[in-house]
Design brief:
about 20% helix, alpha/beta
Amino acid sequence: MAKHRFHKLPRRRSLVTLLAVTTGALFGAVALGVSQAQHASADVLTNASADASVSAAAPTTVQNTGWLSMDASPTQYGYFKFDVTVPAGQTVTKALFECWAGSSSSAGAELWKTSSAWSETTLTWADAPKPDFAQPPVGRTGAVTAGSYTQANVTGAVTGSGPVTLVTRTSSTTRWSCASKENTSNHPAKLIVTTAPTSGSPVPSQPSSSSSSSAPAPSTGHKLLTIVEENHSQSEALKSMPYLASLASQYGHASAFHAVTHPSLPNYLAVAGGNTFGVSDDNAPSSHPIAGDSVFDQTVRAGKSARTYAESMTSNCQLSSSGNYAVKHNPWAYFNGSTQRSNCKAGDVPMGTTASGNLLKDINSGSLPNSGMMVPNLCNDAHNCSLGTADTWLKSWLPKLMAGPDYTSGKLTIVVTFDEDDSSAGNNVAFVVVDPRLNNAHKVVTTNGTHYSLTRWYDQNVGAALLRNAATAADLKSAFGL
C-alpha cells in the first residue's frame, strides 16, 4: 500500500475558518471563490453532526478519529452529515463544502448525496448507506494541496432545511485525508450555505430615465453572454427543445422568469436598457432613438469589453432589417447618443458562422466580452422557424462556447432566454444558465425574475451602477450562487 502521509498543521486559524462552520470532512476541491453576500443575502453556517470514514478492507471497523481518509485501493469513503437550517423566506443559492487537507492528491474527489440514517459511533463499511454512484456526483474537486483549505460546490445537494449527508470518493490509489471535527488543530471542515430572499432582494428605486442611484457593485471581471430566442413560453421551449432542456437540467434554470411586455422590441430594450422607454411596437431605430446608456455602453464606460453578435447582419451596428436580420432584435442599435452610436459601431458586429467569423474567432482566442449578446437570425431564433430548428442551432454553438478558453477557465456564464411568449402563459419564458460552477448542480431558482433582472446581472458583473429598473429587479445572479 502507498504511504499515507500527514502534515503537521499550524495553529493559526484562517479567515475562512472564522467565517465558516465546523464540520468533519474529507476531500479536495476545485478553486471556487465564496461569493460575497449582497444586500439581503446571508451565509448559513451549519455544524456537522457526524463524520466518519469507512473502508472495504475493514468492513466492521468504525473510523471517526481526527483524520478522515479516502482511497481507491483498498476502497475508502468519507461520510459527512449536516443538519441544515435555512431561514424562513430564504432560498439556497450556493453551498460549499470545505476542508483542510493533511495530504496532497492530484486526483481530488467527487461527492454524492445519500441517506442520513447513520451514526458516526457505529458506521462501518458493512452498514453504511451507499449512494448510487452510477448517478452524476453533486460536486467534484480538482487537485488537493496539503496544508491548505480546499472547496467543492455542492449546491445541488442542499435544497432547504433538514439533514444532508455527503459521501466522498477518490480515484487515487494513494490515500489522502482531511481534518475531521474531532481534530484538535483548529482546522475543522465546514459547510457554507448561502441564501437569499425567495422573492429577490430589491434595492432603492430610481427615476426610469437615468442610471441607478445605487453605488456600483464590485466588478467580478467575469464574462456574461446572453442568447435571446423568440416568442415561446417556458413550457413550450423545454418541451420542444431537448438540448436546451438538458442544459436546464444539468446546470440550472429560473422557473418563474417573465418577459415584461409584448411585442419583441420593448423586451430587448428592457434587457439592454433596464426600461421599455415607452416603446410598444417593433419599429426601426429611426422611430425610437434612445438617449442614455445601454448596459453595453456602461460596460465600455467602466473600462470593460462589450460586444454583440448579430447573425445575418451585414455590417456593424446595422440600423435597418435585411434578409433574416431583424434590427428589432438588436437593442444596442437603438441607443443613439454620439458616444453610444460610436460604441455600437465598434462592438455590434456580424456573428458569422460556426465555421468562421467574429464570434468563432473570439471564442477560440478567449476574447469574448465581459458583456455580450448573441442575436440569432429570424429562423434560428424560432421566430420564423420551429423550436427544433432553434434547438439545433443552440446545439451547434453551445459546445463551441463551452470548449473555448473563457468557459473552461471558469470566466464565462451563458444565459439562454426568450424575449416573450406567444401570449399563452403570462409571459413566463425559459431562462437557462450554463456555468461550469453549476455543472451537475441541477439548480432550480424559483425567484420571480424579469428582463430587468438580466440588466441587473450585466451591471453587477462589470461593477456598473444598476441601470434604471434594474435597481428594483430580483438579483438572479446571487440566486444562482454566481
